[in-house]
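Lab notebook, bench 4. Still working through the backlog of constructs that have no structural model yet. Next entry is a single chain of 201 residues. Request: give me the structure tokens for it.
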Amino acid sequence: MAEFWEKNFVEKQEMWGLEPSKSTILAKDFFVENLVKNILIPGIGYGRNAQVFKENGIAVTGIEISKTAIDLAAKHYGSDLKIHHGSVTDMPFDNYHYDGIFCYALIHLLDSAEREKLIRDCYNQLSENGFMIFTAITKEAQTYGKGKFISKDRYEIFEGVKMFFYDKESVYKEFDKFGLFEIIELDESFPFFFIKCKKTK
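Model written out:
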């Protein structure tokens, strides 16, 4: 995955621009409303979805597999943005407990065991009463059912990119035991579920 990311995406540097995604704005509003002071962003990329949190007084720590993306983040947003270099599948990278976790358009790129581990690892790094928000591609996407069949609802869309497509049933199956309390359908570059969970234990 790391080599694919470097070769096919990061070489096109800033391919998504520098403006935060629609999901990020929603997450920022929610975190500000709920007095979240620090967040972890697994798969932070080159930081375009980090700055809006920082501008609203929220400390940001990231995890990113691509060294090139980390260097771009430093170029655009300064060296004060702490980013752990590594794969989200190797979490945790620190022992800190965060008020919030925001995982954008990443979980559907993982297989079932990796998805389960990521959700559990994120939940374990939440403070009590902390929130985590995931965005995940849905079966409404035009690419659903296209490409090479891997397993139920998972397809290799093009070489090296395997996607799992969620419906509400699979969201409940994977997130319900981790404080799931709201699913919002959201359309931006793809149809997404905006998945909210709260740690209450």
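Notes after review: The chain has a mean pLDDT of 90. Residues 112-124 form the longest helix (13 residues). Flag for follow-up if needed.
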